[in-house]
Prior knowledge:
This protein has helices spanning 8-11, 17-30, 33-49, 54-65, 71-82, 100-117, 136-144, 146-149, 156-179, 193-207, 225-239, 253-263, 273-289, 303-315, 335-343, 357-373, 375-398; strands at 87-92, 125-128, 182-185, 214-219, 243-248, 294-299, 325-330, 348-354. The chain is of the alpha/beta class.
Amino acid sequence: MELSFDNTEIAFAYKSDKELKSARWLLNTMHYSWFVALGTRLTPFLMKTGLPVHGIIRKTIFKQFVGGETLEETAGIGKILSEFNVQVILDYGVEGKEGEANFDHATEEFIKVINYAATQKNIPFISIKVTGFARFGLLNTLNDAPRLRSGIHDHEEEVDEWDRVRERMYRICEAAAEKGIGVLIDAEESWIHDPVDRLAIEMMEVFNKEKPIVYNTIQLYREDRLKFLKMSHQIARQQDFILAVKLVRGAYMEKERDRALLMNYPSPIQQNKSFTDGDYNAAVSYCVDNIEDIAFIVASHNEYSNRYAAELLDNKGIKHNHPHVHFSQLYGMSDNITFNLAKAGYSVSKYLPFGPIREVIPYLMRRAQENSSMSGQTGRELTLINKELERRKAVNKKKPE
């Protein structure tokens, strides 16, 4: 199989020299962990003070990782990506709100995004967070008290509250099913995830009969998630629906370990990265082996895992654009994977968040911390950018004057 993630000409064909140099400067800045730590603490505060930092953020980290402040602003990026056969997963990036009015508003916004996606040729999915329309404390309560999930519950107010969450979720999935748009349910912290998982399965039972619409996210940096994937598949077979999953490694590792230590319970996180990698690749293999009744998204920045998935498809003679398999990377990262996969004919997308700068700050801070902690990944990005800039420089020198 001729698939290389080293071809920078393909990887960065959509970016100008200026854009590449801007990305290089930003990633170089993120190499300094002390600077990122200071920035992630100060930025949310500075945004609230009204100081003129909005423009600086917009021109740097926001531009690198976010599609725009409005749906309309994402259209330009979507159009550019489509020219290279790269699709889009739209994410309304507002999070951390509380209150029923905010939850209802978020639900309407998710439906608005679905309706917009349906008008675009290259937006097959949208992404949602259950905490966008459900109270964190409620999910925590349901996670810790199994009897509440059965519906036998003394607190009528919380039963009604959970019913409203389920109704919001149903409305979102119903709108998506009508428009043929996939809904990716984002992963959350382990201590609220049980009700999220149950809600995902419940919606799959309704909407995944004919084709995959609702996707749950499987975090393979958790020790129990490979087993959970297989258990979910068993349920899907018993209930006769298509299991749909997004496979990720995970994004809350430090928070998970700190909480486990503080509250004196075993950490749900794998012993080390090799265990995570092993389970991730085993999950990919399991999904490929069961591709007729599992739809899955390889959502990874790990070059080996992406190549491994691609090779499995080739070895089994499965079409690169099989409707049950998709690849995805975050916008602003791993272009060498995304665009080379697209060039080879695989279905691949960029995860593209959007929203007012003030509202997407939590997302941006996670991206900054991620790039700071993953020095190997950031170093790889910088090496590829420098390689492409040198290649372009050499090409320009050879051009006749």
